[in-house]
Amino acid sequence: MMRALEKGRSLVSPLGPFFVRYGLVLVLSMGMVVCIYLGDRFEREFTANLEQGFQQRVELGDLASSVHQLRKILESPRALDPGFVGGLVERMKEVEVKAKAQVDAGRIGEISLPTKELTVIVGMQQGFERLSASAGQVERAHSLKLAIKPPESVDGPALKRVGGLLDDYVNAAGALRNSRSASSGLTSLQQATMALGENLISATVESRRKTTAQAWRDVLFLLPAERGDLVDRLLADGRMLEDLQNQRLRALSRLEQVAAKIDSAERLLLQSRSSGGLLVVSTILTWSGVLCGLLGILSNVIQLIRLNRITGRSSHESLELLVPRSVLATEQHDNGYAKTTDNSLNPTASEEEQLMASRIANEIVRKGARGSDSEAFIDVASEAHTVVESKVQAKQIVSLESEPVESVTSGYWIASGSMAERRVALLDRQSLQLEQHVRAVMAAAETLAGRIDVVEQSLQLAAEVDSVNSVQELSGFRRRMEELQSIAMNLSLEVGNGEARESTLDELERFSDELEGMSEEAKRIVATQSEGAYDRRIRLSLDEARRMAAAADTLRERTELLLDDAQRFRRHSEALIRGIQEGAVAELPASYVRQRSIDG
Amino acid sequence: MQTPDTSDRYMLVSFDGRRYAIPLKMLERVVANTRCDPWIGRGDVKGYSHVAGWMVWILDASQVFVDFEEVNVNGSWLLVLKEELGLSRVGVLADDIKGPVSQSKLQHIKRLQRRSLEMSLDQR
Predict the structure, then answer these.
(1) Does domain A404-589 have CATH number 2.60.120?
(2) pTM for the whole thing?
C-alpha cells in the first residue's frame, strides 16, 4: 500500500510544478470555452424560440382572420345572393383545416366549431333558390302595383294589409341583398313572408268583389294564391328564414367562443414565448467566458513580469550561477554563513524561480560540457528568456485572436439575419396573398362593369325609338278600325234614309257592336304587347341591377379583405424593419467598432 | 221595301269626355280621321273640310247644340249634320262616335237638341 502511494506520488510529482505553473491558466481557459459554449447554446435556443413563436403567432393570426371572415359572412347573411352558400362552405372548410392544424399542434385546446349549424345552413341552398324565386314574383307584383297604383280599398282590410306587406317584403328583400342591413333584413323578410302567406288568400277573395278596383285583381293575378302553391312557398320561406336566423345566431355565438379561445391562446403564446430569461442567461454565460479569458490573460501577464524579473537577476548574477548549485549547496551545508548569504540572496525565492533556475543551470552545464565558454552561458540564459517571452506573447495573441465577444456577436448577427430572411419570406407569402386578392377585386370589378353594360344596353333598348314604330303601327291599325266603324255608321245612316229594312238596322247595329268589341280587343292586345315588352326589358334591367348590387357588395367585401391583407402586410413589414433595427442596434457596435478600428 | 223608323235610333257621341245621344235623322254622315283646314276668316267657324263633295263648315258643338255652353274637343271624328244649304254642310268635331244604338239602350245618356241655324247665326 505504501509502495503504491509512493509510486503514485513519484508519478504525480513531476506534474506538480506544471500544474502549479499552468493550472490557473488552464482552468480559466476551460471556463472561458465552457461558458461561451453554453452561452451560445442558450442564445440559439432563444433565437429558435423567437422564430417559432413568431411563426405560431402568424398561424394563429391566420386562423383568427378566417374565423373573423366567417363571422362577417354570418353577420351579413345575404341569402338572396347565389354565392352566399358557396362562400360560406369555402370559408368553413378553411377554418376547419386551420383549426385542426392548430389543435394538432397543441396550441389551442379542443374548440367546438359550429359545423352542425353551418351544415344546416348549407343544406338550405334549395330553400334559398326558392326564396329567390318567391322574391322575384313578389317584386314583380310590387312593381306592377307601383305602376298602376290601385286605389286604397275601404272595404278590403286584407287588400290593404297585403298592399303594405308587399312594400315591407320588397324593402326587406332589398335590405337582405345589401350586406350592411342583411341581418335586420332577414328578420323583417321573415315576418313579411309569413304575414303575406297568411293574408294572401283573404286578399284574393276580397279582390273578387265588384266594388274592388280591377287594378287589385291585376296585381293579385301575379300572386296566384288559389292554387296554394305560392302560399305554401311563402310559408316555407318564412319557416326557413326563421331556422336560418336561429342557426346563424347559434353559429355566431359559437364562433365568438372560438375567437375568444384563439385570442387567449395567442396571449398564452406571447407569455410563454417571452423567453427573455434565456437571453439573460446566455449573456451572463458569455460575459463570464470573457471574464475567464481576461483573467487568463492577466495571470499570463503577471507570470511574464515575474519571468522578466528573474531574467534580469540572472544576467546580473551570472557569475554566481556559473557555480553548480550542487557544489554551492554543499558549501552552504558546510558553512552556515553561506547559508545565510544564500537566504539573503533569494529572499523571494519561490518554487517557480527554483525550477526556472535549475533548468537554466542544467542547460548551462550541458553547454559547458560541450565547450566552457562564458558567453555561451549568457546566450543560453537570454535564449531561455526569449523562449519564455515568445510563449507568453503567443498566448496573448491567441487570446486576442479568439475574441469570444466578437464570435458571439457575429453568431447572433447571423441568427437575426436568418430571422429577417424568415420574415421576408413571410412578407413574400403575404404579398402573394395580396396579389391574389387584388386579382379577385379586379375580376369583381370586371364583372360589375359587364353587368353595368348589360343594364345600360337593356335600358337603351327599352328607351329606343322602335317604340315609335310600334306606336305608328298601332295608330294605323286604329285608323283602319275607325274607318270601318265610320263606314258601318254611314251605312246605318243610309239605311235610315229608307234604303233598307228594320232588320238590316239591327244587323248593322250588331255588326257595329262586334266591330267595336274587336276594336277594343285589338287596342288591348296591342297595348298589352307593348307593355309586355317594355315590362320584360325593365324587369331584365331590374334583375341585372340587383345582380350588379350583389357584385358591388362582393367587390366591397373583397376590397375589405384586401385592406385587411394590406394592413397585415404593413404590420409585418413594420415588424421586419423594427426587428432589423433592433438587431442592428443591439449587436452592431462590436463589429462596427472593429471595423472602425481597422479603418483607423 | 218598307222604310225603317229611325226616330228611335241614336248615335253616341263623346264631347269633352262625356257621352251624348244624337238621333240618326239629324246626321248626314260620319267621318273618321278628319282632315280639316283651319278657317282664318272672321266669325265662329273653326275650320272647313271636304267630305263626299260637300264643303263642311266646322263649328263648335256649343254653337250647334243647345245642351252645353262650351266644349273642348280633341278628337278627329266629324259629324256632318243634315242641312239643305246647297253644297255646304255644317259639321261638329267629336272625341268619339259609337252606334247606332236603339233608344232602349240609351238609359241615362242625354239626348242633344239642335239649335236652329238662324239662332246660330244670330249668336254671331
Answers:
(1) no
(2) 0.42
